[in-house]
């Protein structure tokens, strides 16, 4: 089954946030120390997530990414993976993690049936990591990345948010680190979403700039030509190394966007920038049938006209999407709540 939105984009990709909590405080995502957390009793149980996943899969979703907050903080996460992995329509089951708890959990995640892991890694320097995340756990992240190949994971990705004056001088080093990990590095343009309350356009290092830096080090860079709705444009270095750039800020890819997001408490968002979502926890807990839930999801998706990043790009004066007072009133607007 396939359902299309108003621009003919199918629903294929679901990012599920399993917790809003995090053990880092990245400056571009959670600049405050304290947050208003989602009430525990409102967090979806694994069986509820699994039931909702069935509804989404009936409607065409075949790629699932678990995220957060920090997904490895969710107790007994492998049990959720064991519920999701056997679903017949599932083509891709991945996780995005900051890697801090990966060393201890990699084997259990693999054994549970997780397909792939993406680790967020913004810097190779412990002092920078401490300044950027306000935690001292850089060595754990690197050990966690090291554990992935040992327990049998392939297709690992490393996601780096590139910020001017913070880490743009490390993109060559990160490519070299990726070669030996082994992992495909993806550079993400700094976005003005959710908790990025200190964002400003002059801190954004554009895809064009990143490619220039890499070309001056490696020589000619070829685009990898492929038909995909993945957000990253992929490129190949002369030695065959492939890397990606996610240019959400300067060259957004809304036209092909088949992604939506489910928060840990069951609110479904049609776009990373959407200010309103649809509560699915309520209907699930009131005993809605699979057909009723499918009707709700279908109705919303068919009405979808979101092109958040493109609309942001069209603005002349661009400031952070949401101001801090508003984030405090509605934590659903936070990136760590809706999942990046
Ligand atoms: N905690 C996990 C992690 O960091 O990998 C998963 C959740 S995190 C919100 C998902 C991704 O969003 C991370 O790769 C993070 O770097 C990215 N992200 C968060 N805020 C961002 C921003 N303002 N601009 C670009 N990417 C951002
Ligand atoms: Fe950093 Fe991810 Fe935590 Fe946000 S959710 S503070 S990006 S580790
Ligand atoms: Fe999709 Fe919204 Fe991101 Fe555009 S801004 S790519 S529509 S999630």
Q: Give start-end ranges of low-pLDDT stretches.
A: none
CATH topology (level 3) name of the domain at 13-159 and 259-338: TIM Barrel
Assembly annotation:
single chain
Order of helices and strands: EHEHEHEHHEHEHEEEEEEHHHHH
Specify the CATH class of the domain at 13-159 and 259-338: Alpha Beta
Largest sheet: 12 strands, mixed
Assign an overall shape: globular
Fraction in helix: 25-40%
Distance between the termini: 27 Å
Give every kind of bound small molecule, once each.
S-adenosylmethionine, iron/sulfur cluster
CATH architecture group name of the domain at 13-159 and 259-338:
Alpha-Beta Barrel
Number of helices: 12
General description of the model:
This protein has 340 residues and is α/β, with parallel strands linked by helices. The protein has a domain at 13-159 and 259-338: Alpha-Beta Barrel (TIM Barrel). Helices cover 32% and strands 16% of the residues. The chain is built from twelve helices and twelve strands. Strands 7-8-9-6-5-4-3-2-1-10-11-12 form a twelve-stranded mixed beta sheet. α1 (46-58) packs across α9 and α2 runs parallel beside α3 (102-112). The structure holds S-adenosylmethionine (SAM) and iron/sulfur cluster (SF4) (2 copies).
Quick structural gist:
The protein is of the alpha/beta class and 340 residues long. Helices cover 32% and strands 16% of the residues.
Secondary structure layout:
Layout: E1 13-17, H1 46-58, E2 63-67, H2 77-84, E3 92-97, H3 102-112, E4 116-120, H4 126-133, H5 138-150, E5 157-162, H6 171-180, E6 184-189, H7 207-218, E7 222-223, E8 233-236, E9 242-246, E10 259-262, E11 267-269, E12 278-279, H8 281-285, H9 290-302, H10 308-314, H11 324-329, H12 335-338
Parallel strand pairs: 1-2, 1-10, 2-3, 3-4, 4-5, 5-6, 6-9
Antiparallel strand pairs: 7-8, 8-9, 10-11, 11-12
Helix pairs in contact: 1-2, 1-9, 2-3, 3-5
Bound molecules: S-adenosylmethionine and iron/sulfur cluster (2 copies).
